[in-house]
Amino acid sequence: MSxxxxxxxxxSFNSHSSPTNPADRIRHIAHxxxxxxxxTSFPADTVPQAPEDPLFGLAREYRADDSPDKIxxxxxxxxxxxxxPWVLPVVKKADQIIRDDPTLNHEYLPIQGLASFTSRAAxxxxxxxxxxxxxxxVTSVQTISGTGACHLGALFLAKFYKGNRTVYLSNPxxxxxxxxxTNVGLQVAQYPYFDKKxxxxxxxxxxxxxxxxxxxxxxxxxxxxxxPTGVDPTESQWHExxxxxxxxxxxxxxxxxxxxxxxxxxxSDAGAIRYFVDQGFELVVAQSFAKNFxxxxxxxxxxxxxxxxxxxxxxxxxxxxxxxxxxxxxxxxSNPPIYGARVASTVLNDEKLYAEWKxxxxxxxxxxxxxxxxxxxxxxxxxxxxxWNHITDQIGMFSFTGLSETQVQKLKQQYHIYMTKNxxxxxxxxxxxxxxxxxxxxxxxxxxxx
Length: 450
What we know:
The protein contains 18 helices and 13 strands.
């Protein structure tokens, strides 16, 4: 019969007791020295948990919702009348041309990007007959879509601008503007923009704020289809703003993400930028090709610097600025991605494809405009409290509905309708199958929650 197991403690040690055997004690001390308590260099008081991006959080909630009635009005991407992503027919043709090219390779682009793309991008936003282009007062750099263009511009200003280093943003503006600018050390301030009473432009407040801003401030302006309000200055108001900005020696920073997508007219949507350039302003432009080409994930964009018309010294300024932009680009991304630029370049450099692209733009902008008309008509037919003319007065992908945060929350909880809490909706998320349900849901919520 085997003896019972011994209850005598083992001479081996564990981490919770100090051994009495000298040899074990030495091993214990060595073990402690070799296995110190590990701590992070990034504790919570240094790196706190960041909040989830509201827009991407909204998209996550939408995906998790299994209701057949759910509507996504948050995402800023075009959808067809079936609620599906739309690959532009002209983009499909360009893609085929690229894939059939026997010389196709995947080598690095130059630091400044694909020249056949950036040169046509500059013509697109400034106009083929632009005197700035003719006088070689422009330098262009391919970027990671409009976000990358805004970032490169912010970085350039943070390093080299000697005026008032506060950037004035519209209230409200695209939320990422604040993060991009402050992340590179620039200060931001706001100028009034949206009038909650009229649901239109607070031009008087905007103009006064820019008059009161310190001389030489940077003013960020949405060229067309203002995000998030869909409210743009009129042509005469743009002219008045140009006079005011010149008088205060402010520096214009244009962000254009919807050229051709807003009205369907490429020239009209670039009108404000071209007017400022024609007036002799030195300025910068952040240009995106995500919306107007449907190249959302391909991240195709450009950043343009336009020098003031000062003769030979303007070209010398452009040369110096281009050299510094190349250094910033090299340290940030080294070389821009090629596919989206190839697609856009293929279309922009072919007359037939370019003409077809303009037709595609009219298809997208036309459907959005038709949804604006349909929504306004249905709300007015229902007698929904309030006025709804702003739905059709506004332009572009987004509409600032005027719905309160409480009403927005109720639309999500009871009717499975997802929009940003400030009441902004993406008009592209509406279609002939859901616009009636949306209008009736809004009508009920507006009546219930004043």
